Amino acid sequence: MTTASAPTALPAPAAAPATHAGAPVGADATRRRRRPGLAWLGLAPFGVYVVLFLAVPALVAVGSGFFDAAGRPTLANLAAFTDPSILRAFGASAALSAVSAVIGAVVGAVVCWALSALRPDGLVRSMIDSVASVLAQFGGVMLAFAFIATIGAQGLVTTWLITTFHWDINADGAFLYTVPGLVIPYLYFQVPLMVLTFMPAFEGVKTQWGEAAATLGASRATYWRRIALPVLAPAFWGSLLLLFANGFSSFATAAALISQGGIVPLTIRQQLTSETIIGLQNVAGVLALGMVVVMAVVMSAYALLQRRAARWQR
User: Fold this and answer.
1) pTM assigned to the model
2) Is the pLDDT of residue 22 over 80?
3) Ramachandran assignment for 277, one of left (phi > 0), alpha (psi -120 to 50 degrees), beta (any other)
4) If you count Cβ atoms within 10 Å of the first and of the last residue's Cβ in the chain, which end, N or C, has fewer?
């Protein structure tokens, strides 16, 4: 007698597609996730602010350089870039921004290195972060007045040095009221800005990298030279460029200390109040165009460096 063969097992049903919050994950769900939602409406007030108070004034300022006194379009005003006084203003602005950026970047990097040894949620670290956030935005007339009252011709420190050590720091002229003297007040906000922008890069350096290098026999100096510094280099140069752009565009502090031109922002003010280049109109708009070009180049390089530095912060 023959025995009945065992029934053939049916194939297992195909696994259902993975779901997320009860919805299948597929092409339709991906398209739904990519659709702009109502959350984009939260950016509307910021977008209106950017357009009205940043984009429109910038376009008007730059566009004015391409019109003559009668309102006709012209490119003749671009000849202002060949004027010696304009070239000196751009050179002075670049030198001032570079010096203050380099000093601020080095000092700020040292401060970040010292802060990296502290607990991120500790009291000292929190206080320093708060102070840096405030001082990075502290500028303008108030900062200029603070330095005038401290190391100006009749400042507290100046008077104390004269009465105590018979040393007048302004004997050869008030250094604070010159373009090189602007480096001193500029450092007051450049160093805190460096701390704010460079500290996340220091936090991205993992302690496991140092432990792994020590396990492989590397010294502390080798670790910094071969691992830590190459990782921190893009963020450092990016922060340096940000400090350069910050110094290049600063106006209020310099305007409160220097009455005449000397750097580009002050030269723009001078051209707005009285045209000093004979035969050319709307030179202020031409200078604004030059500043926009410089800032665009610097910030583009900054964005590229930040993109490279972000690879180590993931």
Assistant:
1) 0.79
2) no
3) beta
4) N
